[in-house]
Amino acid sequence: MLKRILILLSICYSCIFAISDLEKALQLYEENKFSKAYNLFEKLCKKDSAKSCFSMAYMLENAQGVPRDLGTAYKLYNKACNLGLSESCFNMGLILKNQDYTNESILAFNKACNLGDVKSCNNIALFYEKDQDGKMATYFYKKSCQLKDAPACYKLGLLYEKGELIKQNIKNSLFFYSKACNLGYAESCYLLGRYNQLETKDLQKAKIYFGMACDKKHKEACAAYKELNSKAVEIY
How far apart are CA 25 and CA 118, in angstroms? Predict the structure, then answer.
């Protein structure tokens, strides 16, 4: 029993020092002591510290204290990605994209997207949108929207409103505009205001949405709000 407790204490002790070593390495990096930071990151990366492998890769990619080595940087990003660090999967995707390995970059972005990286989901969505594949573009914008990315929710509203890449569906369009608006995306609030003003003739609701957009410094919304105010439209 005592032996088991000592082993557990030893493991916990090692964990504490591993964390403090990473913090030390990050501090050295912030102080621009790149060589010392890199050496410490390297030791930790060998122990499967994803953030350390990522940091090494980033330094190699950007020639910070070490010669630029994109090949080794890619391998280290890959290791950190396999250890579950979404930022590494995203950076892998960027390297592959910049070298015109489109399919491979999509796979890397997809892995990052599945780990909750909004930028990666949007990268894939934008790729499929440009490729005129509305079904796949919608799928990945929805993943971003579910991760509370307001621009992605807005983009879904726009796609459903226009009905060019996917079948037009005003109900879905309003749903996603509403999500984007509630996440603080001013243009979506403004469009909802216009819809209620011009389509449903619900001026009270229109004024609420214009007000929300105006609070985000949307000029057209402020002008519309002022106009309804001059007509004595009350919100309540």
Answer: 28
pLDDT (tens digit per residue) in 185-217: 999 999 999 999 999 999 999 999 999 999 999
Q: Which amino acid is at 213?
A: A
Nearest to 38 by CA among 16, 62, 17: 62
pTM metric for this prediction: 0.85
Please name the residues in contact with 197: beta carbons below 8 A apart, sequence gap of 6 or more.
203, 206, 224, 228
DSSP 141-179: HHHHHHTT-HHHHHHHHHHHHH-SSS---HHHHHHHHHH
CA atoms within 13 A on the CB side of 35: 0
Q: Are 121 and 140 in contact (CB under 8 A)?
A: yes
Report the distance separating Cα 95 and Cα 167, nearest Å.
35
- Cα–Cα distances (Å) from 167 to 132, 138, 156, in that order, read 13, 11, 12
